[in-house]
Amino acid sequence: MRRLTARAGRWWQHPAFGRGMREMAAVSPGLAAWGMMTGVAMVKSGMSTVEAVAMSLLVFAGSSQLAAMPLIAAAAPLWVILATGFCVNLRFVVFSAHLRPYLMHLPLNWRLFHGYLTADLSYVMFTRHYHHPPVNEVERREQLAYLSGGSLFNWVSWQGASLLGIALANVIPTHWGLGFAGILALIGVGCSLASSHLRRVAAGVAGLAAVAAYALPLKLNIVVAIASAVALCLIIDASWPKAPGSPKVPA
Amino acid sequence: MNGTDLWTLGVIVGLAGVTVLTRCFFFLSNEPWSLPHWAQRGLQYAPIAALAAVVAPEVVMVQGQLVSTWQDARIYAALVGTGYFFWRQGQGQAVLGTIVSGMAVYLPLHLGLGW
């Protein structure tokens, strides 16, 4: 335990920890607006303050919270609510497959801790920076420091905004549409990922597929969209002449 | 309606378990295992695909239908935000600028003109 505490202290001091926080800070205004509207929505769906606060602090997953609210209000069976949450969160299962080689050097409780805190943006920012899993202790510490900084900043700003939304639920009208700032934050992060032709193709295909398959229940359109974009990009990638050692497609 | 009940709190704890299960799905087990090579290559497209899949319906759809009017503030806000990002070529606080410029278009159109 002392060893872990000492290591935790080193993440804190590592420059990558601050970098992770700063880069997350750049997208946090949009996320905060989104978190606040999630807080407002929980109270408006009929949850008590205690329930809304517990949901925000424990569940910590905006999209599955939004999906669960009407089901809780309608007193749907427990397994239906949990299955819905699982399906809405399926993208995290994909993310966890990606993150596995980055985190397997940690003991299980720390993997659970980091996994739990790694929401969409923490994952996206982290994998944008680190294209390969760490190969030595120096890289392991840097990557973990960056991930921790981003995740913790994200957690604090999301929770702060969500609790504020719960407190102000009866003052902020939902028709202002402040939650759209969250979509703009995701657009900005998406643009920063569009670093190769094939990634832009992936974005276009996924966007079209998500709209086309929107009628699917449980937000399964998102899973269909990811799967079709990844599959198409793999096919294009395999049939294209490759630059050595680079996944990028020549212009 | 706004009373706290144990069933709801139980559901919330269950949903927290779902968050942990899905976010940690592939690193719960210590067994040595690795993704096939093609899947590792494919995963580099997953983050941008996931973002686009979440964002696109939120910009161009209303209640499950494609928008049928150009008088929709979200479309212009998304275009201006994206335009700002590429104008700044992603440098500096480009993501923050995307949010601010997009909202600067969105709020007047949405609240002022009711788009």
Topology record:
The complex is a heterodimer of chains A (251) and B (115).
Chain A: H1 2-13, H2 15-44, H3 49-59, H4 62-73, H5 78-88, H6 90-103, H7 108-117, H8 120-129, H9 137-167, H10 180-193, H11 197-212, H12 220-238
Chain B: H1 6-23, H2 37-43, H3 46-60, E1 61-62, E2 65-66, H4 73-87, H5 94-112
Antiparallel strand pairs in B: 1-2
Descriptive report:
The complex is a heterodimer of chains A (251) and B (115). Chain A has 251 residues and is mostly helical. Chain A is 76% helix and 0% strand. Chain A has 2 domains: 2-193, no CATH class; 194-251, no CATH class. Chain A has 12 helices and no strands. In chain A, α1 crosses α9, α3 (49-59) runs antiparallel to α9 (137-167) and α8 (120-129) packs antiparallel against α9 (137-167). The radius of gyration of chain A is 19 Å and the shape is globular. The termini of chain A are far apart. In chain A, 48% of the residues are buried. Mean pLDDT of chain A is 85; it is low at 244-251. Chain B has a two-stranded antiparallel sheet with strand order 1-2. Chain B has a domain at 59-115. Chain B has 115 residues and is mainly α. Chains A and B meet through α2, α3, α4, α5 and α6 of A and α1, α2, α3, α4 and α5 of B.
| Low-pLDDT stretches of chain B | none
| Structural class computed from helices and strand pairing of chain B | mainly alpha
Give the N-to-C terminal Cα separation of chain A.
51 Å
- Please indicate the percent range of residues of chain A in DSSP E strands (runs of 2 or more): under 5%
Major β-sheet annotation of chain A: none
What is the average per-residue confidence, as pLDDT of chain B, rounded to a whole number?
Answer: 87
The topology string of helices and strands of chain B comes to HHHEEHH
Structural class of the helices, strands and pairings of chain A? mainly alpha
The total count of helices of chain B amounts to 5
Helical content of chain A stands at: over 70%
